[in-house]
């Protein structure tokens, strides 16, 4: 069931890049609204149906959930601006180094990861590079964009790891509600400080796309990732997120009429092979 939900989550986040590209709004504003609308949608469930779960959250769980939200805001705040500073290919290749950082952070925390996890993560990232390529420029602006994308990849690893820790004792609804609320607040401050428009000049199509982005990428994407990370673990979850790259290419091909790179289909097989190696290693570890 967790693998099935993970497939739905990856499908949801695959709509993120095409919808962002088609939405006429500032990057930070898009990030804010996708989280704020999600909080609005979750509020009736979190505050009414699951109120007891939210109230039972201890101080540590609340602080960790808020920390995850802040790190998620950092991820959005770094990655989206990088797309306009460096090439999309370079930004994509660097932000999807998340599994390597996840495995490295776990190692630094004293958790030895099997060689198969390292190999599978590297193979999956190779699949992403096959699609996006590496187009590093030496211009100061492009290098800054590359640095932002790399920082976003590290932040995503922190988000997944903190979420895995909180989900040991906290329900998906309670954790997600506190996390997204924090993300919305941090991004709202970022929008106000940067002067990003939060609604002025938006037409009906823009608002419709923001709602679609929230439902697909946030509620079905990130929320289900928060659900399955408890059972699958951070290594499997972060590696599976790499499937967003070929998924987004296929969505763009069908919806926007953009022909996917020739390497999309073989790269998809490479990413799946890397993910299978990580899952196999994880299952061997649990059986051992």
UniProtKB/TrEMBL annotation:
Pfam families to which the protein is assigned, alphabetical: EamA
InterPro entries: EamA_dom, EmrE-like
Annotated transmembrane regions: 31-49, 61-82, 88-108, 115-136, 142-162, 174-195, 262-280
Domain of life per record: Bacteria
Signal peptide start-end: 1-21
Keywords: Membrane, Signal, Transmembrane, Transmembrane helix
Residue ranges of domain EamA in the record: 3-132, 144-279
Similarity remark: Belongs to the EamA transporter family.
Protein name: DMT family transporter
Source organism per UniProt: Streptomyces humicola
